[in-house]
Recover the amino acids of this structure.
């Protein structure tokens, strides 16, 4: 690696720093707010020197930790928030089906299967979000694209009034 001061950082180097930050987040060294701030700073930096500052107060990762850092290489691990959402969907689905079953039982016949209007759309939204990466795992390419899009949006906002776009 070139150690000339002021050397421009590449996207691959930024991605590697974000992967290291993700490992530090998973290990509990960073909270989510600080992680988000540091990731935003990584994508706002231009030089390698500025990238090094982002990790300066964190311990150096071992080779084993660095090898397992990128979330994309871990396989099909489901993120925590998606497991929580799927568990909520499953729980509510069971409850509404039981309620429908009790209503049908008390009516003495199968009634209109109204739980489909709870189960179907909610399930479709969850499947859509998983397939499209709507909420991406930190360190993945989808997450990096989302952060870059957010950074560009923030750059176009008026610094004095964040609710109004900047008028050059």
């Amino acid at each position: 690696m070139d150690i000339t001061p002021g050397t421009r950082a590449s996207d691959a180097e930024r991605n590697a720093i974000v992967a290291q930050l993700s490992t530090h987040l998973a290990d509990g060294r960073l909270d989510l707010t600080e992680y988000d701030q540091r990731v935003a700073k990584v994508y706002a930096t231009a030089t390698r020197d500025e990238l090094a500052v982002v990790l300066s107060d964190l311990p150096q990762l071992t080779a084993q930790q660095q090898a397992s850092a990128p979330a994309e290489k871990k396989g099909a691990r489901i993120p925590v928030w998606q497991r929580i959402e799927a568990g909520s969907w499953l729980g509510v689905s069971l409850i509404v089906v039981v309620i429908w079953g009790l209503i049908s039982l008390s009516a003495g016949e199968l009634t209109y299967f109204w739980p489909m209007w709870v189960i179907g759309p909610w399930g479709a939204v969850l499947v859509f979000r998983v397939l499209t990466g709507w909420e991406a795992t930190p360190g993945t390419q989808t997450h990096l694209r989302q952060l870059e899009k957010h950074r560009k949006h923030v750059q176009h906002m008026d610094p004095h009034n964040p609710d109004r776009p900047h008028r050059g």
Summary: The helical segments are 11-27, 32-44, 48-54, 63-67, 80-107, 116-132, 141-155.
